[in-house]
């Protein structure tokens, strides 16, 4: 490895699994990496939510991706490494499908050998990768401006206050909204990336269709014994898409039974059509909680009322199409700019992993040719 590649400085925007995998891969190859994450911690859609019940006890919820599966050999190699480090484990529970029209189960299958979860939370993987040697992580730091300067260390990054955050040789953005009008809808600010800088990528980045959803976190004192599976998809429901019993995952506390419900995209879109993408009021979130739980209750599967209930909006979490299936990431070699995420390959964790690996590969090829 040359001293030039060791000195290469790369900014990674976003600490979801795609950004975290990219950052870790770069750092292991001698690149100096800084992660910028607007949230309080890593994980993106693989975040873990910490809530406090009325009794003052802590409740943990994987309110985004409930588990992931892998089939690609590159992704599998990483997962096996994470497994050896105690970061992931198989989740061997029965899964089923429930028809809300007939109020009957359509079938239940025993747990297979390809459902992985982070331990003790889905964010455990990103958390570990973001703290590896060679990776500096800046949480609570959103990027508001990416400026290109025609000089050494050409990328200059600023936050929403105009504060200078550093200069870099290359940038990896794992946020699909980095150059999208949706960023303005969410924040009221112009997108951080001026697409005029990357005209070849502009058309793909400008309008990435997304599927929103709401998640509902529920905690019960007693097990929901009428449900013969710990994960189920819903058929013929306008409101619910699926449910998973979070507390049955390896490494989770078992002092309560915790379930996560996810809404259908149509239900989420109907709410967003009325409320927009700005922060929702507690009153609106409470109404959504009531509507989602009522649908769950009408299934006849719920044998007791929850002692904790709270909704969360994933406004643009799920990509509706893939924009770089073959390349696995978007790449502008003139700017040393990579765009990665599940929206590039496939709308799941494996897609995000493969995209992060591809983005790292592009930058490492650049560093080796310096």
TrEMBL record:
Gene3D superfamilies found in the cross-reference section: 3.90.660.10, FAD/NAD(P)-binding domain
The species this protein was found in: Eutrema salsugineum (Saltwater cress)
Protein name in UniProt: Amine oxidase domain-containing protein
A Pfam family it matches: NAD_binding_8
Signal peptide: none
Stretches assigned to coiled coil: none
